[in-house]
Design a protein that fits this description.
The chain is mainly beta and 413 residues long. The chain has two helices and 34 strands. Strands 7, 8, 11, 12, 13, 26, 27, 28, 29, 30, 31 and 32 form a twelve-stranded antiparallel beta sheet that branches. Strands 14, 20, 21, 24 and 25 form a five-stranded mixed beta sheet that branches. The longest helix is centred in the last third of the chain and has 34 residues. It is rod-shaped, with a radius of gyration of 37 Å.
Length: 413
Amino acid sequence: MFTSFSTALSALGAHATAVDVVGNNLANLNTPGFKSSTVSFYDLVTQSLGAGLGETQVGFGVGRPVTLRNFSQGAIQASSGALDAAIQGDGFLVLKSPQNATVYSRGGNLIVDKSGNLLTGKGYKVQGWTERGGRLDTNGPVGDIVVPVGSIKAPVASTRFQFDMNLNAAASLGPPPENFRSSIEIFDSLGSSHVVSVGFTKSATANAWDYSITIPDGDVTAPIAPLTGTLQFDSNGRLTTPDAATDITFAIAGLANGASDINLRWDIYNGLTPRLTQYAQPSAVSANSQDGEPSAALIRVGIGDGGRVLAQYSNGVQEAVGQVAMASIRNPESLVAVGDSAFQLSEKSALPAIGTPGTGGRGSILGGAVEASTVDIAREFTSLIVLQRGYQANTRVITTVDEISQETINLKR
């Protein structure tokens, strides 16, 4: 009978621990990426009474409860944070703690410090790959992701331009012959812009147009003669001369601002398909492009889908400057929570497999979103009521055994 004291006391301790776990779950109801824990109770070894070899067994109570973390998928919620990232599927972000220890997390509220390091809200450095020399190599080892905060993007000098256009097959030969002109803005090595114009004049030769490429005289130290030539089309309106193997290059030397000379190529073919046609429609440009860029300042940095770290510049250019890495762990239940929504490996944990999101069984990363906590408030309150009743029942056991003990002691009076 007197073992009931220790049995009930073990139950009080176990239920108190379980209430602590439920309280922790409810406290993290709104913690992004938090995974709730459940409590498993286990009985202690039983005591056999008499010589019946187990016919009468009395237990010694309940052992220390075991907590199991639920790594199920949390709801994905849209966020206004440009650096917020949510993991959909299996996997963890790889982080470096301030003590340089590797930890793992599902929390995706990220920030950038003054040095450009991509961090969690608690200062853990996010691991991945950073652009080096204009190249983002995800085949190398992971390291701290550093974005170019406050930097100026160097200009890119134009080397080619193109028009997708039609020249009117019904154009008049005049006099004067019908002409059409289009212009495009290009950039030099200093990031200064220049306007290159291409004029087209209907030729007396059937299905032919003469072209002339010019640049304003004020942009150069000495006037540059126009680059001229002829475009020949067949009876079906398809460009035949020049052919796809012929380069049309306009050399711009002696720029007035001191920039490097430009050798500008006019791409009149897309592979083997002409970009210019001659049909009985008004002459018009449907698309144009060139490969130069002016210098620009960094405006903002954000996380895109797939875990790409995107930098947006003042000239409208957006480019990937980093890639967030993900770790896949076969038995995440073995991880040990270390606070700050982070986990570390235990002796039971499988070796993490680190790679890019969406590969090797790893989940995907969604930018502009966070993963909600997996805490179910209804289930937690239900568990809290059940645990409270269990605690009350075991206090009643102690009270009852105490009363029986008093009755037993009173027998000798």
